[in-house]
Amino acid sequence: MIKNYVIDTNVLIHDPRAIFKFQDNNIFIPFPVIEEIDKLKTRRDKVSESARSINRILDGLRGEGNLKDGIKLENGGFLRVMAVEPQKSIDIPRYLGTSPDDSILYYAMYIKKMDTSISTILVTKDLNLRIKADSIGIVAQDYLSDKVEIDKLYRGYAFHTGKPFKTDEYEDIPPDLLELDESVFPNLYLWLNERPYRYNGHKNVFSPVNTSYISEVFGIRPKNYEQIFAFDALLDPSIPLVSLVGIAGTGKTLLSVAAGLKMILESKFYKKMLVSKPVIPMGKDIGYLPGSIEDKMKPWLQPVYDNLEFLCSLKGKKVDEYLSKKDIIEVEVLSYIRGRSIPNQYIIIDEAQNLTPHEIKTIITRAGEGTKIVLTGDPFQIDNPYLDNSSNGLVYVASKFKGSPLAAHVSMFKGERSELASKAAEIL
To answer: Are residues 120 and 222 in the same domain?
Structure first.
């Protein structure tokens, strides 16, 4: 059944192409949303990029018809930018003020009264606006197109759940001989008889991997099977995209930095390591901090610096010896990454759960030939007010790339930082 969807500004900023993802329904963009977008496009950050993208999309659609009367979209939907004169439409309830949110609520009420035979739904990522809408009888929901149910997130590895299986008889194991608790995708890991395997989609077999408990990577060794899987993915140049999702203390950042240093300084696979992290709010200007980009970003990237310091100490080195070499480690502000082409680098994006799917796409599409991107984060520790554990870019990428041989994903649950840290992550 056809529905009317009223789109809030934050949905379009979150995904500039959101209007094309409501199938054959009616999409209404209130005029106050267009005004808000106009104000946002002058900012110097990711928000302004999204605002300008929306403007370009809407301007392109003007060639298909009149936005006031409505335009038929290729997917069968109907888009209309609505401008309403309050005094000529419906009475404004006393409880509605003049704020942008209240103006959008007014438009939703107007559209609902305009045709009572069609359900009207306000789509917004603003929790408070959804509550206000519900309190006045307007159905409201989050933008669901890019949501991934966190409890159904692809784990990235599997276990054999059937009768005991003798691995000594096989070098490579066809998956149909096993009873697995996870669907088989390229680069799915398998822990079988205390040995790690990885699925080879071209041969349709699980092949043993070289990484083990005794493998040493820049002075450290994996402490559990999750870290074995992670190291294998991080050290394989044929896997250019790795996502590590896990709670605090599981070793996501430490393993990523250690593997990067090994691949740059010892294996010589990459020219340098580029590290970054979302500055929340995403893209906020960091010019108010003194010093160079490295100095300004250091407070945000302190976990990476801490791990660098620890790893260098294992080698008897001081971290400044590496940081002072510009050809080895580079700190980048994500706001400035758009438009770049980055070849032959090992890129770590820490705290990637604070990125939107659109922002993650912007980063990954910057990867040039021979570049590896590592995304790490905890989807249950999100600072972005418009994201949650199901809609952030990190889990979105892990879900979307699970069928690609170019990517590997490992969900990490075993805390190894300390007994106290593990217990805190479990019970607090």
So the answer is: no
Return the beta strands (E) in 130-278 as ranges: 139-141, 157-159, 189-192, 195-200, 205-208, 241-246, 272-276
Dist CA 16 CA 329 (whole Å)? 33
- Please report the sign of the dihedral spanned by the C-alpha atoms of residue 17, residue 351, residue 123, residue 8: negative
- pLDDT computed for residue 282 by the predictor: 40
The DSSP result for 181-196, as a single string, is SS---TT-EEEETTEE
Which residues neighbour 46 within 8 Å (Cβ) at sequence distance 6 or greater? 282, 283, 334, 335, 359, 362
Full residue range of the structural domain in which residue 94 is found: 4-141
Which pLDDT value is given to residue 89? 56
Asked whether residue 280 falls in the same domain as residue 401, the answer is yes
Compute the distance between CA of residue 108 and CA of residue 133 in angstroms, rounded to an integer. Answer: 9
Q: Are 122 and 229 found together in one domain?
A: no
pLDDT tens-digit readout, 83-127: 887 555 566 666 777 788 888 998 999 999 888 899 999 999 999
Residue spans of the chain under pLDDT 50: 281-286
At 59, list the tokens. Answer: 């301007």
**Per-residue pLDDT, 325:** 57
Structure letter (DSSP) for residue 92: P
Each as own residue / partner, the long-range contacts of residues 36-44 (CB below 8 Å, 24 or more positions apart, any chain) are 36/9, 36/100, 37/9, 37/12, 37/13, 40/9, 40/13, 43/283, 44/283, 44/285, 44/335
Q: Which two tokens stand for residue 424?
A: 């805190």
Helix (H) or strand (E) holding 319: helix 319-323
Rounded distance between C-alpha atoms, residue 49 and residue 61, angstroms = 19
In whole angstroms, give the CA distance from residue 376 to residue 244: 5
Q: SS3 for 330?
A: strand
In a domain, 294, yes or no: yes
In a domain, 197, yes or no: no
Question: Is residue 418 one of the residues assigned to a domain?
Answer: yes
Other CB atoms within a 10 A radius of the CB of residue 361 amount to 16
25 within some domain: yes
CATH number of the domain encompassing residue 49: 3.40.50.1010
- CA–CA separation, 105 vs 339, rounded Å? 37
pLDDT score of 145: 78
119 in Cβ contact with 139 (< 8 Å):
yes
Question: What is the CATH classification number for the domain harbouring 378?
Answer: 3.40.50.300
